[in-house]
From TrEMBL:
The SnoaL-like domain, residue ranges: 5-107
Gene3D superfamilies reported for this sequence: 3.10.450.50
UniProt cross-references to Pfam families, sorted A to Z: SnoaL_2
Name of this chain's protein: Ester cyclase
């Protein structure tokens, strides 16, 4: 649980090097926005995308359950939407996501990280925020 909270803190602080330190070099990251999977490069790409859209992107653990070497987490994700020219719109969005992270025995490095959320619901929020 501490590792997941520390990852959230590092994501909120935009400390990508610290985030990557919690992941095994051969980790698999499944991007909940695209369904694509890859390694640490995919995780960096996901964070870059989130930071570009939401400069204050922040995950928070809302609930969690540990089963062996895997943790299931419900996250509350928030961020203030950037406008087309990079200026903030002032529109703060909130959405939920679930994730399953599997840890290497012993090192507790994350070896598999899978995020899932209702992309259509987030797209609807984005559309409404852009029209407001």
């Amino acid at each position: 649980m501490d590792t997941i909270r520390n990852v959230c803190s590092a994501v909120t602080a935009h400390d990508v090097d610290r985030v990557l330190g919690y992941f095994d070099d051969g980790c698999v990251f499944v991007d909940g926005t695209t369904g694509e999977q890859g390694g640490k490069d995919s995780l960096i790409g996901f964070l870059d995308q989130m930071y570009a859209m939401f400069p204050d992107y922040s995950p928070r653990v809302a609930a969690a359950h540990v089963d062996g070497d895997t943790i299931g987490v419900v996250y509350e994700l928030t961020g203030t939407l950037n406008g087309p020219a990079g200026a903030t719109t002032g529109k703060r969005l909130r959405w939920m996501a679930t994730a399953f992270s599997t840890f290497a025995p012993g090192s507790l490095a994350i070896i598999r990280d899978v995020y899932c959320f209702d992309a259509a619901a987030l797209e609807q929020q984005l559309l409404e925020a852009q029209q407001a």
